[in-house]
Amino acid sequence: MSQSSIFFDFIKIVLRGVGQIMLQNNAITGVLFLIGISLGSLEMGIAATIATLTGTLTAKFFKYNSEKISEGIYGFSAALVGVALILFFKSFILCWISIVIGSVLATVLQNMFIRIQFPAFTLPFVLVTWFFLAVSTYFPFLERSLIVSPTQTPLDFLSFPFKGYGQVIFQGGLVSGIIFFIAVFISSPLASLYGLLGSITAGVLATYFFVDTNQIASGLLSYNAVLCAIVFAGDKPKDGLWSFGAIVLSLFIGLFMSHYQLIQLTFPFVAASAILVILKNSSEKKSI
C-alpha cells in the first residue's frame, strides 16, 4: 500500500471519528460536521480536528482494536472534548494543551468502557470535560469564557428542532443545525428523521414543565433527545417505543440536573440510553 493511500485512509478514519459524534460511521458526515462547527466557530472546528487526530493517534499508539479504530470509535469523544474546552475556556495556549491531554484521556476511557462492554456512548467526553471544569474551579490555570445565551426570536421557536441538532456539538446557529441534519441524512435517512422527531418531542414535552422558552427555542432541551432517538432508530414499532422511552428519560434527567444547576453536557443522553440499551438487550435475551 502506497504512502498516499495510507494517508487518505487515516484521514477517512479521522473524519469517521467526527461523524461518530452522532453514531454515523461515515467520512462525508464527518466533513459536514466540521463545516457546521467551523461556521459557528472556526476555533471550535480546529479544536475538533486536532482532538479527533489526537484520539485516533492515541488509539493507534496503544494498539487498540483496529476495527474500532477504523470505524472512528476512538475519535468522537475526543472531538467533543475539543469543542467543549473552547466553549468553556478562553483559547490561550494552556487551553490547547488541555485539549490534547483531554483527547488522550477520553480515548483511554473509551477503550476501558469498550473492554468491559459497557454502552458508554459519549461518557468519556462528559467525564473529561467535568474533570477540567472541576479542576479549573480550584486551580484556575484555565480562564473561563463568559457564555451568554442570546434572546430567541419568534423564528427560533419554529426552528428549534434543527437547533437541537446543532447543540449536540455546541452550535446554536440554525445553519449549523441544518448542516448536521443533512450530514446524518446522507449516512442514514431513517436515523436523521428519528433525530428530528426526537428533537421536536423533547421540545414539546418541555413546555409542560414550565421550562424557560428561550432554552427550548435554542435547542438546549432537545440535543440529548436527538442522540437518544438516533441510538434506537429502526423500522419496527418497538424501535420507536424504545426511542420515545429514552427521549422522555433523558428529558427528566436533564431537567433534574438543570434544577440543581449541574452542567449536563450529554450525560442525560448517556444515562438514558445506557439504561434503555441494557433493558432492551435483557428483554431480547429473555424472548429467545
What topology does this entry show?
Blueprint: H1 3-19, H2 27-40, H3 42-61, H4 66-70, H5 76-88, H6 93-115, H7 123-138, H8 156-167, H9 174-187, H10 189-206, H11 213-217, H12 223-231, H13 237-259, H14 267-287
Helix pairs in contact: 1-2, 1-3, 2-3, 2-9, 3-5, 3-6, 5-6, 5-7, 6-7, 8-9, 8-10, 8-12, 9-10, 10-12, 10-13, 12-13, 12-14, 13-14
Overview of this protein structure:
The protein contains 14 helices and no strands. The protein is an all-alpha fold and 288 residues long. The protein has two domains: 7-138, Ammonium transporter AmtB like domains (Ammonium transporter fold); 156-287, Ammonium transporter fold, CATH 1.10.3430. It is globular. Helix 2 (27-40) packs antiparallel against helix 9, helix 3 (42-61) packs across helix 6 (93-115) and helix 8 crosses helix 9. The termini are far apart. 73% of the residues lie in helices and 0% in strands.
Tell me the number of helical segments per DSSP (H or I, 4 or more residues long). 14
CATH architectural type of the largest domain: Orthogonal Bundle
Distance between the termini: 45 Å
Q: Supply the CATH class of the largest domain.
A: Mainly Alpha
CATH superfamily of the largest domain: Ammonium transporter AmtB like domains
Structural class: mainly alpha
According to CATH, what is the topology of the largest domain? Ammonium transporter fold
* Averaged pLDDT: 93
